[in-house]
Amino acid sequence: MPHSTNRLAPRTMAFVLAGGRGSRLRELTNDRVKPAVYFGGKNRIVDFALSNALNSGIRKMAIATQYKAHSLIRHIQRGWTFFRAERNEFIDILPASQRYEESTWYRGTADAVAQNIDIIDSYDVDYILILAGDHIYKMDYELMIRQHVETGADVTIGCLTVDRKEAKAFGVMGVDDSDRITSFLEKPADPPAIPGMPNKSLASMGIYVFNWKFLRELLIKDMEDKNSSHDFGNDLIPEIVKNGKAQAHRFTDSCVRPEGGEAYWRDVGTVDAYWKANIDLTDFTPELDLWDRNWPIWTYSENTPPAKFIHDRPDRRGSAVSSMVSGGCIISGTEIRESLLFTHVRTNSYSSLERAVVLPGVEIARHCQLRNVVIDRGVQVPEGLVVGYDAEVDARWFRVSEGGITLITQDMLDRRAEG
């Protein structure tokens, strides 16, 4: 029986890979997986992939988890439970559960899908969209799925257009004039250029579209290969490029952006990149539009009171300039500039924050001066702390990044107090 709609998203399942730690974020991922890291004042990183899928019309999703997944699972349970099975909508959490061997968790990205073949079969879908859960971007996946079907590809890979010199850090596609992929190279020393664009390359976004029947057979074959690392980028994609048809999909063809705006995609995998992407949101016109009601980023929305600013004396004024301050915050006699504060942050008199990213539940005591910092969730900042003015002093107690951003956690402060 033919489908009643020509849209492809309702016939697609989104499978989000959210098991990686993200160790370059250092202590920010000590207790949570990278997709569960906070972003933008109220979101988690994983909300972007899930919201893109939802806004694209996909109502069948699964999230594969592994490393320290509790924070992520709790967020999904609190913020993403509006799917209704009676409307044929699902969002499944698929922890690594040693389903085939007691000593084996997910062995790679492809294995995370392969170990859940029976669950995917139960969704009764034609297409499967594989997503990384740790990037910040807005994209209409329907357009990518449609290109996949129209070109008759075995796999379609989402690609960024990057400078060739920057492409060395990515998996890079060599393509012909029709964007058919002719080679797939992992972090090559000499990345292939895009035809007609000698200084640009196509880098993989870690987004793949497959026909489910095709991928299902490929996964079963890969599981039986003892020499495989069971990874899409290392094993399955090169095999398809060599023996099948792999197609590149350019992010600029499906990204969601303000009229005249640039295509926005960020890997916030380092402390510097994470800090900058958050602080960039305080710009007069940020590149990432979180205020777009036509393509909202869904999340768990706490029931919080409005932010409150108190005291109005020259030396003791609760104020915020070029900043984002979330609900539940109380700014008491603190000057805040170019900063982003998550929910339930409390600051006290005679303190100042400049270019600070402050995660939920932080309390900052009096007479603190904090500049170019990321403060982890729930930290109690002691009275008189000065950070961001002397990198050598800061590095004795805190994590100072290559770009000069200081990461502050409660454990660091406790060691400082003891020392």
Give a verbal description of the structure:
- This protein has 419 residues and is of the alpha/beta class.
- The chain has helices at 46-56, 70-79, 109-114, 117-123, 141-151, 212-223, 232-243, 271-280, 391-395, 410-418; strands at 12-17, 38-39, 43-44, 60-65, 90-95, 127-132, 136-137, 155-163, 171-175, 181-186, 200-211, 246-250, 265-266, 308-310, 312-313, 316-317, 319-321, 324-325, 330-332, 334-337, 340-341, 346-347, 351-358, 363-364, 369-375, 380-381, 386-387, 399-400, 406-408.
- The protein has 10 helices and 29 strands.
- Strand 2 and strand 3 (43-44) form a beta hairpin.
- The model has no long low-confidence stretch (mean pLDDT 94).
- Pfam families: Hexapep_GlmU, NTP_transferase.
- Involved in the biosynthesis of ADP-glucose, a building block required for the elongation reactions to produce glycogen. Catalyzes the reaction between ATP and alpha-D-glucose 1-phosphate (G1P) to produce pyrophosphate and ADP-Glc.
- Keywords: ATP-binding, Carbohydrate metabolism, Glycogen biosynthesis, Glycogen metabolism, Nucleotide-binding, Nucleotidyltransferase, Transferase.
